[in-house]
Each structure stands twice: as C-alpha cells, then as structure tokens.
Specification:
Blueprint (H helix, E strand, L loop, with lengths): L12 H17 L4 H13 L8 H11 L4 H19 L7 H4 L1 H15 L5 H15 L5 H10 L1 E5 L8 E7 L2 E5 L11 E3 L10 H12 L3 H10 L2 E3 L6 E3 H8 L2
Antiparallel strand pairs: 1-2, 2-3, 3-4, 5-6
Helix pairs in contact: 1-2, 1-3, 2-4, 3-4, 3-6, 4-6, 4-7, 6-7, 7-8, 9-10
Length: 251
C-alpha cells in the first residue's frame, strides 16, 4: 500500500458528497438520464444521504426549470417542490424556503408558465402539485395528486369504531368506493361517489378546478370534483369527504 503523505490527502466525506451531488445534477440536466433523477430522489428526498441545504441543489433545479426542455423542467419542478415541503417539516431545514426565496420565486414562475402549455394530463397534474408545493402552506398536495394521476385513493373511514380501509376509484374504471381493491375482483359491492358541485366549490378546490378549466384540462377539472366530493364507506355507509381523508392520512 503506498504511503500516505501530505501531498495525497484523503478526500473528506462532505467533499465527496458535494462531488456526487454535482455529478448527479449534471447528468439529470442532460434530460437523458432517468437513473440520475431516481438517484436524486433517493438521496435527497427519501433517505437524505445528500444534503438538500447545499445551495447547489435549488440553484441548479431552478436553472433546469427555466430551460426549454419540458421533461427536464417538469422533473426539476416536481423534485424542488417536494424537497421544500419536506424541508418545511424538518427542524434542521425548515427555513430553507426563506433562505432561497429568489430561487423559489423563479421556480414558481416557471411552474405556472409550464402549467399553461402542458397538454399531457398526468404531466399537468404533477405541475399543479409542484405549484402548490412551491407556494407552501399545505403538505398534502403530493397525496392529492397521486390519487388524481393513479385514479384511486386508499383511505380510512373516519368512524371512531374503526371501519376497514376503503378504495375510492376516480377514472376510467368509474367513480365509486369499494371495500377492497376493485382491480383484484369484479365481484364486490360498490357505492357511487358524490362529486362536489363546481358552483359550490370553495378555497383550494375552486382554485384548482378553475385552473384546470382555464388551462384546457376539462377531464382533470371533472376528476377534481370527485376528489373534493364525498365517498360512502362500504362498511358503515357513512359519507365522508375524500380530500378530508386524504389530508388525515397524510399526517
């Protein structure tokens, strides 16, 4: 083994992490490396092995969001929004949004710009999610739009006696609730959903509905009326707010 000298220093852990972060961001910016995005989500969001507070993170994601490549911009916006919401809830990073206010403002402007020109349904939903995450104030946008994109929610009945979980289906399979995953069996009882009347929607529900209509996504707007409507528990037959239980289950 060669002798260690002062001219051959051992790289510090934080330097190695910074180099890995920079390399991943550079690979992701090419728009052709899905594994780089997967690694960024894993190491920045899921296990925190890379430090989200490094200025390079939001600075680079902001530059990507303002790029002309739609897929890269959307990926950057979704990750940046998720990281900010997660940081809001952690003691050591809860002021990240304030420290990077200029980048957050640029990210939000980019999200709203891309939102208005995106034709794909699911990409559009992810951009709405990014807008809400970048604005801050709620922590459950990811759970809300997960259900819209995947056309189902798995929720808990709010009954204090503890009913079983229920599935709320909103999409091509129909609009109903069931006591088990409808995809696993056709022979189960279903209960029709009760969509919100668009004229009666208020607050966030009204805003998202209006945005979807304005942006030409009528099907998303219709689906949102079910997300902000009511479902029936198949066990106790109590009606419950879908979005209310999405919020409750998101912690």
């Amino acid at each position: 083994m060669p002798e260690m000298t002062t001219s051959s220093p051992v790289p510090r852990g934080d330097d190695a992490d910074s180099d890995r972060l920079r390399a991943l961001l550079e690979r992701a910016a090419t728009g052709r490396d899905s594994q780089a995005w997967s690694d960024l989500w894993t190491e920045l969001y899921h296990n925190g092995s890379l430090d989200v507070a490094q200025p390079l993170v939001l600075h680079t994601l902001t530059d990507m969001a303002e790029d002309d490549h739609a897929d890269t911009a959307a990926s950057a916006l979704l990750l940046a929004g998720a990281l900010l919401v997660q940081a809001d809830q952690r003691y050591e990073t809860r002021h990240l949004r304030d420290r990077h206010a200029p980048e957050v403002a640029r990210l939000l402007a980019a999200a709203n710009r891309w939102r208005q020109v995106t034709a794909d349904r699911n990409d559009y939903c992810h951009l709405l999610e990014a807008v809400l995450n970048l604005e801050g104030g709620i922590h459950w946008a990811q759970d809300l739009f997960w259900g819209v994109v995947n056309e189902e929610y798995e929720l808990e009945c709010p009954d204090p006696d503890g009913c079983a979980s229920l599935w709320v289906i909103i999409g091509e399979r129909g609009f109903f609730s069931a006591a088990e995953d409808y995809a696993l069996s056709d022979d189960i009882d279903t209960f029709p959903l009760h969509p919100a009347d668009p004229r009666a929607l208020e607050g966030l529900g009204r805003r998202l509905y209006d945005l979807a209509l304005t942006d030409g996504h009528e099907e998303v707007a219709r689906t949102l009326t079910y997300a902000f409507g009511e479902a029936t528990c198949p066990e106790c037959e109590q009606r419950l707010s879908v979005v209310g239980q999405v919020i409750a289950s998101s912690g």
